[in-house]
Amino acid sequence: MKVLGSFLFILVFTTFSFGQYDIQGKIKGLSKSEVYLAHYFGYNQQVIKDTVVANEDGEFRFKGTDQLPKGLYLISFLNSKFIDLVVEEPNFSFSLDTTNILQSISFQNSPENSAFYAFQKRMNDLYTAINQPNIASARKQSLIAEVQQFQKQWKSSNSRLFVSKLIESSFDPEIPVYSGSLKNKADTTKMQLFQYHYYKKHYFDGMDLADERMVRTPFLQRKLERFFKDLVVQESDSIAREADILLAKAKDTEVRRYIIYKIASTYENNPILGTDGAFVHIAEKYYIGEPALWDTSTVRRMKERIAIIKPLLLGKQFPAMYLTDVNAKEIKVGELPFKYTVVFIYDPDCSHCKQETPKLVALQEYFKSKNVGVLAACIGRDMGAWKKFLTEFKLSSWVNGIDIHMNPQSNKEEYYTDFRNRFDVYSTPMVYVLDAQKKIVGKRIPVENLKDFIQYLETRRK
């Protein structure tokens, strides 16, 4: 694959912070080893805020005058071991034994973490009991009821703490009992639809979208990804509609920016066909439409990105591509006589293109039976390399073009097509599929999936 560059925008998040911090720890089993303090930024990224070396007794101290943003942190030690802790109070201490972290950990001057680990310890004990082999059914049901009672009591007792929000945000919504009849298959379908719609509508109920600290936890990212992957139809209008509903609830600036960023980055180059329309919607409404949320360079880059992607959405007329054939004759894409046109944009020097080209050639007989033509557009501007490629892969049955045009007055080569910005070619090969009117009906289709995709188009049009 030849990579030509990709769009990248950088977010700068402000933080809900306090001044000095002083966190002291003692870890039994640790000696003269590095210890890291980092906060979560989603579940798969941590931002290191401080690093120290523990003494021979496992004692260490994170101390600083810089602002430390509030949220859920982790302390990492001994390579693979770590603990989660809430940084809400700027000054506290803790101790633990590496042989049994959960049972040994204790905190001083930190109601947040004391409550956090009391919850974890009790839940661990209850679930250990529930999962005992050969447990009696009545005992198991009793323990499950105890879990529910404990969670309810714990949330009530700790409702003013941030850790209560953390625990609540990790839970799924409870679906009420269906009140309709269940006499036949149609009734069952109604019940399932009721459960789905209720679950979807209330999915974010436990997540406080007005609290910027939720950005520095794993839970907001997990909920966003699961919601848009499993509960939203992967079609641009549906994605855009659900994004609008969610963002109407997200009033905090940092939470709002994070949600916008995550949805936009998910659908900018999503492998699911056609979902880039959701990216355009998000970019226009929440980047261009809310410039105060972003720095000027981010807004500018978004405008540039929209200018590239929007003309290439499904259903759009394929933009003009200025090519000449091996006889230096202009190729008019709009006049190609095919029911479907596969536009194969490649570079003769691209190793991945050389791997994919024979796969496309192998579809020649099938394409012929369906009136599918291949327009192979070379982005290189070396006439010799281009013709060598055509000969090597025996591409005479294709419509082959290159962006080299001879100026009759100066007798010099001229180039008219900006493949990167006009056709979003940031890697090669790039594939578009056009209908008879040369409107885009598919893009970035892997070559090995083209036959199935043409069959899908044929079935859809019957």
TrEMBL record:
It comes from the Bacteria. InterPro entries: AhpC/TSA, DUF4369, DUF5106, Thioredoxin-like_sf, Thioredoxin_domain. Residues 312-459 form the Thioredoxin domain. This is DUF4369 domain-containing protein.
